[in-house]
Amino acid sequence: MTAGSEPVLELLPMVFADPGEARARAEHVLRAAPSPVHASVAHQVLGIWQRDFGDLRIALRHLRRARDLAARAESADREADVLATLGVALVHAGRTRQGLASFERGVARGSGHTRARVLYRRAYVWWVLGHHREALEDVRRALPVLRQVADDIWTARALTLRATVHLALGAVERAVADFSAAERLWDTTGQEHDKADAVESRGLAAFRSGDIPAALRLLDEAEERYAKLDTPTYNLSIRRCEVLMAAGLAPEALAEADAAIALLDRIGGQSTRKAELLLAAARAARSAGEAHTAIARAAVAVRLFAAQRRTWWETHARLVLIEARVAAGRRSGRMVADAAAVAERLASFGSPAAPEASLLAGRIALALGWTADAERHLAVAARSRHGGPPPARMTGWAAQALRARAAGSRRGVLEACRRGLDVLDDHRMTLGASELRAHATAQGAELAALAQEVSLAEGSPRRLLGWSERWRATVLSAPPTRPPDDPALLSGLTAYREIAARAEAARMEGRPVPALEREQRRLEREIRSRTRHMGGAAADAGDRLDVGQLLDRLGDVRLVELAVVDGRVHVLLCGQGKVRRFAGGSLAEAVAEAEHVQAGLRRLAHPGAEARLPLVEAAGRRLEELLLAGAVRHLGPGPVVIVPPGALHRVPWALLPALRERVLSVSPSANSWLRARETTPPPDGRPVLVRGPGLATGGAEVPELADRYGTATVLEGDDAQVPRVLAELDGAGLAHLAAHGTFRADSPLFSALRMADGPLIVHDFERLARSPYRIILSSCDTARLASVGADELLGLVTALLPLGTAGVVASSAPVNDAAVVPLMLALHKGLGAGLSLAEALRDARTALPGDAVHQATGWAFAAFGAA
């Protein structure tokens, strides 16, 4: 190397510290008629930048030029270094054979320190190709030399790579040790891009350790670091997709993977990254229930991996392809053989996905009636139930449950389902955000369904009730983690409220709002991300239903829990010391009928639609036949509690003829009703009345209620701003909120009530130390909920129940604002007489005028809980 080369050579480490600056300086070097050595370095820097952040075709041109210039300069080490960089680029371009040949020449040309760097980069390529043993061997050869010459940057890179390989092999503890050692070295350098990569790698390690909130936090931090460097984040997208899927957020993962693929295609980026992103998209589509999308993505990924000679990756993509084809309804003996071959190949790689492939082979064999083959494959999959991360143990217990069912052992099925759901409970309670807890339950849906099938076959209504409760409204079974006093989160909520209010005002004035909507979506993403970083605080999964205790506490109340097994509704009537089962109708028919009723109520909210009333009433009779069936004759004269599945949360239960004249309440689960019943009101609970802006009646009931209560806190006009409203609601005995409600099916925790300064959203309510003992929400759609996970509901009502609220009155449909006023006044009259919410609502309905608008308004409201 010639004298004066050092400033130019500094561009190589700079490309991972400040990529944009390194690129600019390299271009400046080339404009100054440099020597072959300097030109070689500059072209290499530009090649690295294009390889990692730009167009791979341009990268290859720069790197070939850098190689030729190094040869002309007769610098063996310079040539070896460029050959290694070129080898990485060729492999990323899918030219695996040429890339490995470039590495062979690089190892032969280099010596000492340079050869160690070449070996490190070949180890990286081995990892990309899925050759983990070869990768570990090259790192083993490189590390002592890098340490000997005190090359902290390349030592840290080698440790990070070795940790990543350990993770691929399931050796989490070894990986964490290497990541920690690498991070200590990064702290001594100015390699900002490498530091961001280290944070990303720690996120992956946290995920492999089962800590999803920490993984999301670290990946978000890495993204912020990359953004400051203005560098793309394809690998980060792949890793985040994996974490999002584990958290039950498959649609988000699919959207992220597809967006990254589109960007990569636009710039002509790495073929290897595209294949990995296609695999991530296929996995996400399969988890999201989009089987045909998953087949399309996985098939392309398989072809790309095969062309790139990446057998490890290709095998994982084949697993997803077979799973997607099964999800699309395909079954064949060939598919059993293919799944078994994939399982064998994955096991030879030491991949944690091997049990999943064996379970798949067993499932297909069972569907074909090949019991001996199924037992062989399921037995292999079941070995994973006793160790490893939660998904592997869940896979093992699912396999064990299927084995027991095939063998006719009902006890074995129930034991396997119990053990598997216990694993998922432990995992779920590491999550602080109620959204993540709810979505995570989807992973246990199959086990819960198997247990319900066995309980039904045994003819035990008590056991069927227990298993229906085992996986229903689990998010409400333990107090949520209260969001931290995070200044950034509080700032984000305030900014979101302001932007949303400005957007609403612009819409009302007919002004364009795209820029405001974009900013609103950005703030939503920021708020969602920060709340997902919360770890779980509960030590266990919350209360489990004690059926005996439930029956003892019911008294003259009849609790009707609707269980769904194999698409049919089963009515479990609890009361008089026993649980009785009645066969209901098809869930699909009931859901369709409920939608017809909702459409009718929407029409009846406006005068002039009286002709719809007989149709709505007829639909109510059909719903009663489907959902209550023979249980109607055994309801008795007392109060009734309905516990519907998530799919039926929008049924207006008061419309059903057998329930119209009853004291009626609704609960997400029997356990939730028990807890609400045992909740005590605050000793100094005060009434709070809130009137938001823009109501057609102006919230006409509020002034009269203020006179009636006398000591109530009244918030209206500028006083009805979110911070003040939350402060007054905290610990209140009774809260009446007259405000426009907005339900967000796409993001239920952003469902809102409109206050003077903008929306009061579910995330705001979650900050309350204790929500009001009783809450009355007098506007439209406040009881609408999103059904997610196995059988979870997210929305305003379910956010309030675990925070100390024992009872809520809310509407599941649009209502007529004018007709709401007399209903609310009558409701509060009953509360003033000492009635419960359900009793007062029953009496309020009977006090309304008999016209269609008022009847529909009464049916739209329901009492939730037990206060």
TrEMBL record:
Coiled coil: none annotated. InterPro entries: CHAT_dom, TPR-like_helical_dom_sf, TPR_rpt. Gene3D superfamilies: Tetratricopeptide repeat domain (1.25.40.10). It holds the Pfam family CHAT. Residues 618-865 form the CHAT domain. This is CHAT domain-containing protein. The lineage of its organism: Bacteria, Bacillati, Actinomycetota, Actinomycetes, Kitasatosporales.
